[in-house]
Design brief:
Layout lengths: L2 H7 L1 H26 L9 H11 L2 H31 L6 H7 L2 H4 L1 H25 L4 E4 L2 E4 L1 H8 L3 H28 L8 H30 L1
Antiparallel strand pairs: 1-2
Helix pairs in contact: 1-2, 2-4, 2-9, 2-10, 7-8, 7-9, 9-10
Protein name: Succinate dehydrogenase cytochrome b subunit
Keywords: Membrane, Transmembrane, Transmembrane helix
Organism: Algoriphagus formosus
């Protein structure tokens, strides 16, 4: 067995992969949000559709997208493995009072939070990514060029109050997941320090509130506009 395999099969190696993939996915959230916020530009979807078409035809972005799916899969698998290891290491559960004292609610329920986010991700990918890639897309014309009208697909989805509620609630779960995962990733990478850890914690808290809130804002605004 090579040192790489030994490392990846060790608890430390698994935590390291969780941290690295988690940080990559955090970066992806920022990029994805920047693109999605163009849905709120009042130009009937022109900015978003041109952006989506440009990204879809960029070879670099295609490679990154494949890597993103791979990292999501790795993150999920190793999360499940580590969760099972932790339960095996602690066959007797802590009492509620002791658990509450030694850890946050988010850290104790990362498995539940991650599962809800995974379910949402499947629904989200099926409703948008799959339709964009394999569905019969409507088209729109800008400056004599024909583009896939992804804006119309998103607008129709966000005119459904049920989907909006699912989306907003899921962003709440994402916020709790990020509130623990952000600082935890830095700690796993050994970047915790008495001087800098409080700052990292504050940045993580701000990030975990701001990013999901902005994601949630998009369907809320588009639903109101559809009324």
């Amino acid at each position: 067995m090579s040192w790489v395999t030994k490392t990846l099969n060790s608890t430390l190696g698994r935590k390291l992969l969780m941290a690295l993939t988690g940080l990559f996915l955090i970066l992806f959230l920022v990029v994805h949000l920047a693109g999605n916020l163009q849905l709120l530009i009042p130009d009937n979807g022109e900015s978003f559709n041109i952006y989506a078409e440009t990204m879809a035809n960029n070879p670099f972005i295609r490679v990154v997208s494949i890597g993103n799916f791979a990292f999501i899969l790795i993150h999920i698998i190793y999360a499940a493995v580590l969760s099972r290891q932790n339960k095996s290491a602690r066959p007797v559960n802590y009492t509620t009072s002791k658990a509450s004292t030694n850890s946050t609610w988010s850290s104790r329920n990362m498995g539940i939070l991650g599962t809800v986010i995974l379910i949402f991700l499947i629904i989200h990918l099926r409703g948008f990514w799959y339709e964009f890639k394999f569905g019969e897309m409507p088209t729109a014309e800008y400056g004599g060029m024909i583009y896939k009208d992804g804006f119309k697909i998103v607008s129709e989805a966000y005119s459904n109050i049920l989907y909006v509620v699912i989306y907003v609630v899921s962003m709440g779960f994402l916020a709790f997941h990020l509130s623990h995962g952000f600082a935890s990733a830095f700690q796993t990478l050994g970047l915790n320090h008495a001087k800098y850890s409080p700052l990292i914690q504050k940045i993580g808290t701000g990030f975990s509130i701001l990013i999901p809130a902005l994601f949630a804002l998009i369907p809320i605004v588009m639903y109101i506009q559809s009324l």
